[in-house]
């Protein structure tokens, strides 16, 4: 088992990831684009990074943006990342994965399969 580094009194914490889906993003397709959100929550330290993988590739050719890192009351952190895809490219996507990465630790990921 890999030892987790200590930061002050806190042990490194792996964030939980979600890609919330509701009807609203799909309504964006009427505007010829779709934005997905990835939320990382309760991680430590603050330098975890969120990265998108589309169809298994980290070479994302669509718009990626990141929200600010926010410190929570319990000294953990939360992150957000956004992937915007135009309608034409959305039809080419079979899966979208959001990964949280930190150094040499195994990444944490959540995948959305598209039919």
TrEMBL record:
Q: Which keywords annotate this record?
A: Immunoglobulin domain
- Membrane-crossing ranges are none
What superkingdom heads the lineage? Eukaryota
Keyword Magnesium assigned: no
Any Pfam family from its record, for instance, is C1-set
| Residue ranges of domain Ig-like in the record | 15-111
Q: What is this protein called?
A: Ig-like domain-containing protein
User: Per the UniProt entry, what species is this protein from, by scientific name?
Assistant: Xiphophorus couchianus
User: What are the leading ranks of the lineage?
Assistant: Eukaryota, Metazoa, Chordata, Craniata, Vertebrata
